[in-house]
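User: Some background: our group keeps a shared notebook of sequences we're curious about, and every so often someone picks one and asks for a predicted structure to add to the entry. Today it's my turn. The entry only has the sequence so far, pasted here. Could you supply the structure so I can complete it?
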Amino acid sequence: MEEAKWYVVHTYSGYENKVKADLEQTINNLKLQDEILEVAVPIQDVIEVKDGLKKVVQKKQFPSYVLVHMIKNDRTWYIVRNTRGVTGFVGPGGEAVPLSQEEVDRLGVHGEGVVTDFKVGDTVTVISGVWEGTTGEIKSINESKQTVNVIFSMFVGRPTPVELAFTEVKRM
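Assistant: Of course. Here's the predicted structure to add to the notebook entry:
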């Protein structure tokens, strides 16, 4: 099965939350939870000063854009593209181009968390970051932080513990 990726969808100004709600309703109605995993409108806290008073306000990080985590196929592309308020996918010629994992991490969009079936003792390979290509054994799993503690044998058999995100490793 193809892996889900994050895509950027352009919307009419001010329609971000409406597009999100409509897409989520369509996903539930058509039972597409396995193909369209999440719809996000990134927001950030901003401090506004009005009349000498500081107030924390949430603002849209990217006005007129919505992020969609989905498995791209003809059906999902059609559903997202034809949602009221969507003007198209961001990419050359309106073609849906996925965000890289680095871009997703920078945006701070991690969804509702990664569900994994890792077990203590599993042998894993690091697939991104500084440790890419290194193989080690899982010593502990932290579900709340979405991390695994992996032990590498780096320096003449000396165990080297490293904490990595679920998305940075894959089982051998």
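Suggested note for the entry: The CA atoms of residues 3 and 71 lie 6 Å apart. The helical segments are 16-30, 74-81, 101-107.
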